[in-house]
Amino acid sequence: MAWLEEYWPISTPFLAVYITVVLVLFVLKENFALFLIWLQTPVYWVHQFEEYICPGGFVEFFNRKVLGSKREDWPLTKTHALWINVPIIFVAFPLSAILASLIDISLGIWTAYFSILNALSHVGMFFRHGYNPGLVASALLNIPVGAYTVYYFATSHPLSLGAHIAGFLVALAIQGALMVWGLKFMRGKAGQPS
Predict the structure, then answer these.
(1) C-beta separation of 132 from 58 below 8 A
(2) Domain contains 194
(3) Which of 9, 18, 117, 183 could form a disulfide with 52 if both were Cys (CB 3.0 to 4.6 A apart)?
């Protein structure tokens, strides 16, 4: 498990490139709406690459700057980073795209909303703490691609208002839970020993 905690982010650029090539070759022309849903996953892998590999340092940044910890590795740990990122981006994002393909396209819209909301949290951190790992991908990929996807599904391939509201609420619930956990629960542990 320690190996996985240390090295899972290294897969992100390779997965992002591979899945993007597959999407462009096999999905883009066949089903543009589905392409946009699937695209949220490689976009987010680029975001994670910036957070954890190049330049990396998100755990350290969050502990020091946001939580005010004297340690770079506590209270947010590499274990936490694994169990936050992998279930959401490596499992839930692709699963939602598969369900969007098999059942209804609306089942994937929450990924675009989540990508936007999480990216906005990086922008918010920028105004308080300056550059933070994930900010560049947030500004150049997550927000534009997510916003275009929402726009596309509001205009060219309209989803019902209920589908948009449900997708937004799912994304908001996940992002809200992460923020409450990170900013309330973890901040309380910042001064405690590990």
Answers:
(1) yes
(2) no
(3) 9
Q: Is the pTM of this model over 0.70?
A: yes
The two tokens of residue 194 are: 């590990």
Within-domain flag for 99: yes
List the domain range (segments joined by +) for residue 20: 2-189
pLDDT tens sequence across 45-82: 999 999 999 999 999 999 999 999 999 999 999 999 99
What does each C-alpha distance from 77 to 57, 60, 74, 95, 99 come to in angstroms? 11, 9, 6, 26, 32
Task: Tally the domains of the chain.
Answer: 1
Is residue 178 domain-resident? yes
- 123-131: which pairs have CB atoms within 8 A and are 24 or more residues apart? 125/65, 125/66, 129/61, 129/65, 129/66
Considering only CA atoms, which of 46, 48, 42, 37 is closest in space to residue 148? Answer: 37
